[in-house]
Write the structure tokens for this entry.
Amino acid sequence: MTARKKIAAANWKMNLTWPEATELVNALVDSIEAVNDPCQVILAVPFPYLQSVSALVKGHIGYSVAAQNCHQKAAGAYTGEVSAVMLQAMEIAYCLVGHSERREYNGETHAVLADKLVRCIENKISPIFCCGEPLAIRDQEKQNEYVAKQLQEALFVLSSDQAASAVIAYEPIWAIGTGRTASSQQAQAMHRHIRSVLASQYGEALAGQIPILYGGSVKASNADELFACPDVDGALVGGASLVASEFSAIVRSLTSA
Ligand code: PEP
């Protein structure tokens, strides 16, 4: 059996001008020229930068580019949208699905996310499925049920064969962009729970192969502790991914974990 992938993923969101983006990627690949299996670096960049960032990382082993979203339909009269078919044609290997900001600001429901997951798989794109609870749910200690439902209502539309290419990102909403990180104990407990929910649907063997990333105010200073958790297979990094020295330090933590 192959080792589970370990992933440092950057989520740039709607940040960086093209000159800033170029400088960041060049600094990153200068600092870390290649990453070896089972580690990988994934850069989730705005749509207009997908092709150019792909060109910048080309030849750097272990680097890939992700879209931050795709539309739930294959094609049609959806002005301003981007399909998974288009992403595949541009050789994009990964796509975020269900980031909490899109669930909140774009009203993405479980049903919409299930369709997006299917579009990704149909187009040989590995979905990075984001889940995580808001603070009110954590305060009521109902986070396990909440996250299980997010998986059951969307991810479980995929068959075992299809789910094999998925990546999960657990991102507690109260930790995103707030500077407040889940403790490594909280992260490990939830990642273990997610793996058990995956096992209940797909079996232990497949659940043991699906990478589960943690996201929420990950920085160079807390990465080592998070990556030391047995069920934390990397991170989805927002703010700190916009600073080359921070993100490259996070990648180093991952490769040396
Ligand atoms: C994110 O939005 O995916 C994220 C984890 O952001 P941050 O690292 O800034 O909390």
User: Anything to note?
Assistant: The chain has a mean pLDDT of 96. The radius of gyration is 17 Å. The chain has one domain: 6-256.
